[in-house]
Amino acid sequence: MNRSQALNRLVPPRARDRLGDALLARVAGPSGAENRARIHGTPGPRWFAPGEPIRQVHGDASMFVGGLSALLLQSLHPRAMAAVAAHSGYRGDPWGRLQRTSTFLAFTTYGTAQDAQRAVDAVRAVHGRIRGRTPDGQPYRADDPHLLEWVHIAEVDSFLRAYQRYGAGHLDADGCDAYVAAAARVGQALGVVRPPRTADELAERIEAFRPELRGTEEARAAARFILLRPPLPWPARPPYALLAAAAVALLPPWARTPLGLPLLPRTERWCVGPAGTAVTGAIRWALRQTPPAPGPRQPDPRERRVRASGA
Predict the structure, then answer these.
(1) Measured between alpha carbons, how far is 234 from 21 in angstroms, rounded to an integer?
(2) What is the CA radius of gyration of the chain?
(3) pLDDT above 70: residue 289
(4) Is residue 41 part of a domain?
(5) Structural domain containing residue 164
(6) Centroid of chain to Cα 44
(7) What is the C-alpha separation between 81 and 187, in angstroms, rounded?
(8) Contact 105, 58 (CB under 8 A)
(9) Any idea what DSSP says for residue 112?
């Protein structure tokens, strides 16, 4: 008996429906049902066809882990973090920010080309109004192509890492490249000048940004808020803690120390990994996701590089 079958026997269907509805309400917001109907029910050409890896990745429960990991990784760029701290409202309205992000991903991944472009135009209009300075006086603009590139590659890398580790399926090397190339279309539409189009290029771009990254007080405060002080009712905090631990475990080792996060390889291998798999599986079950049966699991090409380099 697999995990889904065991949960089906233990949990009444109505309880499963209530749990799934609550999760969707948190992630999609009050307009979630209306947006879903528009996204999936409106005829017309799409940016991405059914079966493309970007649809596979962005529709999986592993995005709950990938999204948290992306926020932590993005916070390491001081100018990007300053813009988030001053303008995103992540503390005062964290669920609103999550809902706006998930809605953007849904429209650009699954919606009509017209609606996808509208979503991009709305984000670009917001970015065009955001200006400021970091605490040490560095100017920033949210529409700066360099900062947009960092936000883009941190997201793409985190979403792909999460899917490869906790997803219902698994992408081979060609699938990883196809995912990065598809995400590049969205990044370019948002203003990224030359987004990476293969997994190798993605790894190279992240490595090139490392001299600019550091753990500011704002970044460490954001990490504490995301990981330790989520605005959740107490019954939801234990499963969220598992998601948060899985998100930290996805980070590259070099990203942990600047944020004050531990590196515990044995704990992560034997405890965090299985727990992350269990909680993403439970979310997948609650949302009634029916992913295709995964094929033979193949090593992520980036995992091979990490083992070869000893990083």
Answers:
(1) 18
(2) 19
(3) no
(4) no
(5) 3-31+51-309
(6) 27
(7) 19
(8) yes
(9) B
Helix axis angle for 145-166 and 173-190, nearest 10°, is: 150
Measured distance CA(74)–CA(254) in Å, rounded: 13
pLDDT band (50, 70, 90) for residue 294? very low
Distance CA 275, CA 281 (A): 10
pLDDT tens digits along 194-226? 999 999 999 999 999 999 999 999 999 999 999
Specify the DSSP element, H or E, that contains 131.
strand 131-133
Q: Is 97 exposed, middle or buried (0-12, 13-18, 19+ CB in 10 A)?
A: middle
Q: Please state, in angstroms and rounded to a whole number, the distance separating the CA atoms of residues 311 and 194.
A: 27
Q: Pick from 256-260, 263-267, 296-300 the range whose average pLDDT is largest.
A: 256-260
Half-sphere exposure of 117 (CA within 13 A, CB side): 6
Rounded CA separation 277/21 (Å): 21
Q: Establish if 39 belongs to a structural domain.
A: no
> How many domains does one find in the chain?
1
Residue 270 DSSP code: I
Query: What are 1's two structure tokens?
Result: 């008996």
276 found inside a domain: yes
Non-local (6+) Cβ contacts of 262 within 8 A are 256
Tell me the pLDDT tens digit for each residue of 76-123: 999 999 999 888 777 777 778 889 999 999 999 999 999 999 999 999
Q: Which residue has the tokens 């490249």?
A: 177
- What whole-number distance in Å separates Cα of residue 152 and Cα of residue 164? 18
- The structure tokens listed for 298 are 């193949």
- Please indicate, yes or no, if residue 128 is contained in any of the structural domains: yes
- The amino acid present at 122, given as its one-letter code, is A
